[in-house]
Structures are given as C-alpha cells and as structure tokens.
Amino acid sequence: MAGILLIENEIGIKIVTTHFSPGSIGNDLTTRFDVINIIVHETLSHGLDHLNQKKYDYHDPKVFWSWEKRAVHKQVNHWSWSKTSSNVKQIIFDVYARKNYVMTKTEQYKYFGKYDIH
Ligand SMILES: [Zn+2]
Fold first, then answer.
1. Residue 21 and residue 43: Cα distance in Å, rounded?
2. pTM for the whole thing?
C-alpha cells in the first residue's frame, strides 16, 4: 500500500516522504483523508523515527512491532482518523491493530468500532 522513501538532497539534507504503490490510490485509498492518514503513519511516524535514528530491524519482531505500534497509535489519534474510510480502517485493523501487542481490546473498540472488528 505505502511506505517511506528516504532521500538525501544535493547538500546532504535527509528528506523523508511517503511512497504509494501503483494502484493504492483509488483502490485501497479512496479519499484525501485516507491519503492524509497514511502519510501520518508513514512520514510523521516512521519518517521521524528514522530521522531521529531510532534502531530499526524488521527481522527483529520486537523492534518491528514497536515501530508499527507507534505509527498506528499516531494515525488513530490524528484528526483525519474520524474521516478515514472504513476500507482503510479495516486494512489497518487486520494488518496491525488486531494484534494484542499493538492495541488493547478497549483501544480496538474505541478506534475501530464493533462493525470493523471481525
Ligand atoms: Zn508502518
């Protein structure tokens, strides 16, 4: 769906931006609020973690999931979450939030509602 892109410009300034896979906008992401919310996850959370040189290792589940947990909590607490489509909420729930080490049951109900949790 999306990921971050780390670039260094010609004077050595690191830039972090969100990369969307072909087809993700219009299929997975249907409104501008979906796009904004994914940018919050990718750039504002993962991107800032990279710029702050937090240790990253996707082979280490503990490190990987601590990155995802921060990103998911940031996006569900962003103003765009209430306007994000249920399609995107379902994807975020299925991939991350349904795991009890990412969100408690109480948080799952708060942010995803009963209808999104199957
Ligand atoms: Zn992520």
1. 15
2. 0.90
